[in-house]
Sequence to fold (181 residues):
Amino acid sequence: MTNTNANTTASATATTTTTATRPKPPFTPSHSDADLVNQPIGYWSSAAAKAVVHHIRAMLAQNGLTQPQWWVLNQVVGHENGRDRKDVVQVLRGYLEFGEGPLHHDIDALLDRGLLTQDPDVADAPLRLTDAGAELRDRVAALQERTRAEIHEGIDDADYIQALKVLQRMIHNVDGQAWHH
Fold:
């Protein structure tokens, strides 16, 4: 889906927060420890992934971006001389379950929206952030930090690290493959 500049501007000015301020009930686990030990990891890891990804994507959508477009902007930022499209796709292609094609579509959409630029006269010219792309990326990066804090509320770093190690070990135990840059 390609956002038009008008839609992007409207979305960005409509809201820059991830959620409305509302009181949350205190967290309580779904089951006792004795019962949790027998709960299915597949269900809970999938439920966590869906909830977290939805929360992140909602914030990005409020700011006129898809998640892959956000990934692309983050692969181009900080590269003064630009970044080759093939390098961006190479890093990100493992993030998508349906291949590289959508990444090229999202890169083209960012070019069409004037958030990225590329010299049309040079074959395989590097991708560069425009001023508008850099401004949007920086604004959303600040929102992403707040979104991460919301997701991690009440979870200390040691518990977070342990949770990731447990998930990675389970992936290893079933000969799965997972990688994140």
In short: The radius of gyration is 19 Å. Residues 1-19 have pLDDT under 50 and may be disordered. Residues 57 and 67 are 6 Å apart (CA to CA).
